[in-house]
Design brief:
Layout lengths: L10 H11 L11 H20 L14 E4 L2 E4 L4 E2 L7 E2 L4 E2 L9 E2 L4 E2 L9 E2 L4 E2 L8 E2 L4 E2 L9 E2 L4 E2 L9 E2 L4 E2 L8 E2 L4 E2 L9 E2 L4 E2 L9 E2 L4 E2 L8 E2 L4 E2 L8 E2 L4 E2 L9 E2 L4 E2 L8 E2 L4 E2 L8 E2 L21 E2 L8 E2 L4 E2 L9 E2 L4 E2 L9 E2 L4 E2 L8 E2 L4 E2 L8 E2 L4 E2 L9 E2 L4 E2 L8 E2 L4 E2 L8 E2 L4 E2 L9 E2 L4 E2 L8 E2 L4 E2 L8 E2 L30
Antiparallel strand pairs: 1-2, 3-4, 5-6, 7-8, 9-10, 11-12, 13-14, 15-16, 17-18, 19-20, 21-22, 23-24, 25-26, 27-28, 29-30, 31-32, 33-34, 35-36, 37-38, 39-40, 41-42, 43-44, 45-46, 47-48, 49-50, 51-52
Helix pairs in contact: 1-2
Length: 533
C-alpha cells in the first residue's frame, strides 16, 4: 500500500503486462515440482517488473514495510529481496530466500535445502547421495560407509549392519554377500577366515564353526561336521584321525580313550574292540597280549592273574585255572601236576606240595591220597618202604617207627608180635626172643621170672617147671633140694623145712620119724612117691 500517492497505468503498460501473463501457456508441462516452482517464481518476477516498475507514485514521503522508496516513488519489494523499513530493499542472505512481493523479511531454507548466493528467490533441494547440514553451503557428499537415497536430507545415513559403501556420494549401501563379513561399513567385505562361515547375505561378522565342525576354506558358507573316527580340535584345520587307543563313535565328537579291557590299534577307529578272554590289554593302543602259562583272565578281569597256589594252566591264553587232582601236587602254576612220590600223599585238591607221611605211616605207591597206618607187629622206619616185621623178642603197637624190646620177664618168641607175654610159673625168660626155659629139679620160678631160683634149705623140688619149692615135712629132712625128703632115723626128729634131723633123748629113741620126742607120727613127705598111698 502506498501512502499519499496515486498510481496510474497507461494503455501501453496494460498491454505489456497482458503479454507477460500469457507466458505460462508456452510451457504447459514440467519435469518435476522443482522446475514448476522455479518457473512460477520467474514468472512473478517478470510480472512485477513489467507491471509494477512503471508505477507512478505521486508525492510519496514514506513507504510501508515491504516497499522501498526510490526518489519520490514507493516500489514493492521484489522476490529475492526484503524491505524491512519502507525505505530500503535488501537481498536475502545465502541460506535464505523470498519468493513473494512486498516482503519485509526473508525465510530460512527448510532442512535439506540450500542456497549459496544472495537474493535467492528459491532454495535448492539437496540431491540424493548428498547431505545439506548448512543451508548457506553447497551439498556435502555422503562419506564412505554412509548413504542418502532421498532428496532434501540434512544428514547422510549410516549403512545398516551387514551393509557397506566404499564410494562417496552413495545413494544406497550394498548388502554383504554370504561367505563374507562387513565389520566396517566403509570397507569392502572380508572373506570369512578358515574356521568361520557366513551362510546368509547381510552378515556383520562371520560365525565360528561349532565344536566338532570345521572348514579350511576362505569365504565358507557352511562348516562341515567332523566325521566319526576323527576329531576337530581346531575349526580351521582338517579333521585329525583318532590315534590308536582312542575312538570317536559319532560325527562331531572328540576322540575318547578306550575303556579298560578294550583296544584300538589303528587310526580312525569308531569303536574299541573288547579284550578277548585269555588275553590282557594293559595298553589300549597295542594288540592284546596272551596270558602266560600259569596265568589266566576271564572276561571280568582287567589283567592276567597268576593261578592260585595249587592250580595250573595247560597252556597260554587260559581263561581259567585247572584243578590239581588228589594224589598230585602242583608246585608251580605253569606246569602239569606231578604225582605224589612214594612216602607222600595229597588228600585234597589243589595241593601245592605233597605231604610226607607222619611217623608210623607209610605208602609204597605214587599218587597216594592217604598214608597207611603201620600194622601191629611191624615197624616203619621210613614212610617210603613197606612195613618191617618186628623180630622175636620185640613188639609194636600202632604208629611205630621202631619195635620195642620186651621187658625183663616177658618174651616174644615169634616175629610180628603185637605184645610181649609174661613168663609163666616154672619157667625163666632170660632172653625175650626165645621161648621160656623150664626150671630144672631143685628150682622154681613165679610169673615173669628172668631166671629159676634154687630151693632154699629144707625145701625141695623133684619136678621140672616147678612154680614153687615144697617145704620138707616134719619128721623128715631135705639135705638136697633135688630129692624127696628122707625120714629121720630112729633116735632123731625134725620140724618142717629142715635139712637135717635132731637127736632125740633116750626116752624116744625107739620112735621113728618123730618131729619131737613126745609124739610119734607117720609123715608122708610131699612129693615123695614112696610115701604116697
Amino acid at each position: 500500500m502506498i501512502r499519499s500517492a496515486l498510481v496510474l497505468l497507461d494503455a501501453d503498460e496494460n498491454a505489456r503486462c497482458s503479454n507477460v501473463l500469457q507466458l505460462g501457456s508456452l510451457f504447459p508441462t514440467f519435469q518435476n515440482s522443482f522446475h514448476l516452482m522455479a518457473f512460477s517464481i520467474f514468472h512473478l518476477i517478470l510480472l512485477s517488473i513489467c507491471c509494477l516498475s512503471t508505477q507512478t507514485v505521486l508525492s510519496a514521503t514514506s513507504c510501508d514495510r515491504g516497499y522501498y522508496l526510490e526518489g519520490a516513488n514507493c516500489y514493492p519489494c521484489t522476490p529475492g529481496n526484503y524491505c524491512p523499513d519502507g525505505y530500503r530493499q535488501l537481498p536475502c542472505n545465502p541460506g535464505e530466500y523470498q519468493d513473494s512481493f512486498t516482503s519485509s523479511s526473508c525465510s530460512a531454507c527448510a532442512s535439506g535445502y540450500y542456497t549459496t548466493v544472495s537474493g535467492s528467490v528459491i532454495c535448492n533441494i539437496c540431491p540424493i547421495g548428498f547431505m545439506c547440514p548448512n543451508a548457506n553451503q553447497d551439498p556435502v557428499g555422503c562419506a564412505r560407509g554412509t548413504y542418502q537415497d532421498s532428496y532434501g536430507s540434512a544428514r547422510c545415513q549410516q549403512c545398516s549392519q551387514g551393509y557397506y559403501s566404499t564410494t562417496v556420494n552413495a545413494h544406497q549401501c550394498t548388502i554383504c554377500s554370504k561367505g563374507n563379513e562387513c565389520t566396517r561399513p566403509d570397507q569392502a567385505p572380508l572373506a570369512c577366515r578358515p574356521g568361520t562361515y557366513s551362510y546368509d547375505d547381510g552378515s556383520y561378522s562371520c560365525l565360528a564353526c561349532p565344536t566338532g565342525w570345521y572348514t579350511t576354506q576362505t569365504g565358507a558358507l557352511l562348516c562341515s561336521i567332523c566325521p566319526e573316527g576323527s576329531e576337530c580340535t581346531r575349526a580351521d584345520q582338517p579333521p585329525t584321525l583318532c590315534r590308536p587307543g582312542t575312538y570317536s563313535s559319532a560325527p562331531g565328537s572328540t576322540c575318547t580313550s578306550c575303556a579298560s579291557n578294550t583296544y584300538a590299534t589303528e587310526y580312525g577307529q569308531v569303536s574299541c574292540k573288547p579284550c578277548p578272554p585269555g588275553y590282557e590289554c594293559t595298553q589300549s593302543d597295542q594288540q592284546p597280549r596272551a596270558c602266560a602259562q600259569g596265568f589266566y583272565r576271564d572276561g571280568s578281569m582287567t589283567s592276567c592273574q597268576r593261578c592260585p597256589t595249587g592250580m595250573w594252566t595247560k597252556n597260554t591264553t587260559s581263561v581259567r585255572c585247572e584243578t590239581c587232582s588228589v594224589g598230585y601236587e602242583c608246585p608251580t602254576t605253569d606246569s602239569s601236576p606231578v604225582p605224589c612220590r612214594i612216602g607222600t600223599y595229597a588228600s585234597n585238591i589243589n595241593t601245592a606240595s605233597c605231604l610226607t607221611c607222619s611217623t608210623g605211616f607209610f605208602t609204597v605207591e605214587t599218587r597216594s591220597i592217604q598214608c597207611q597206618r603201620c600194622p601191629r607187629g611191624y615197624y616203619c622206619p621210613q614212610p617210603t618202604s613197606n612195613p618191617l616185621a618186628c623180630p622175636p623178642g620185640t613188639y609194636s603197637d600202632y604208629k611205630q617207627t621202631v619195635c620195642t624190646k620186651c621187658d625183663s620177664g616177658y618174651y616174644a618168641p615169634n616175629s610180628t608180635s603185637i605184645e610181649c607175654l609174661i613168663c609163666p610159673r616154672g619157667f625163666a625168660c632170660a632172653i625175650p626172643s626165645v621161648l621160656p626155659q623150664v626150671c630144672p629139679v631143685g628150682t622154681s620160678a613165679n610169673y615173669g621170672a628172668v631166671s629159676c631160683s634154687a630151693c632154699s634149705q629144707g625145701y625141695y623140688s623133684v619136678k621140672n617147671s616147678s612154680a614153687a619149692c615144697t617145704p620138707c615135712a616134719p619128721g623128715y629132712f631135705c639135705d638136697t633140694s633135688k630129692e624127696c625128703p628122707k625120714q629121720c632115723p630112729i633116735g632123731s626128729y625134725s620140724s618142717a623145712a629142715r635139712s637135717a634131723c635132731y637127736q632125740c633123748t633116750s626116752t624116744c629113741s625107739t620112735v621113728v620119724g618123730v618131729f619131737d620126742c613126745s609124739t610119734c607120727i607117720t609123715a608122708k613127705p610131699t612129693g615123695c612117691q614112696q610115701f604116697s598111698t
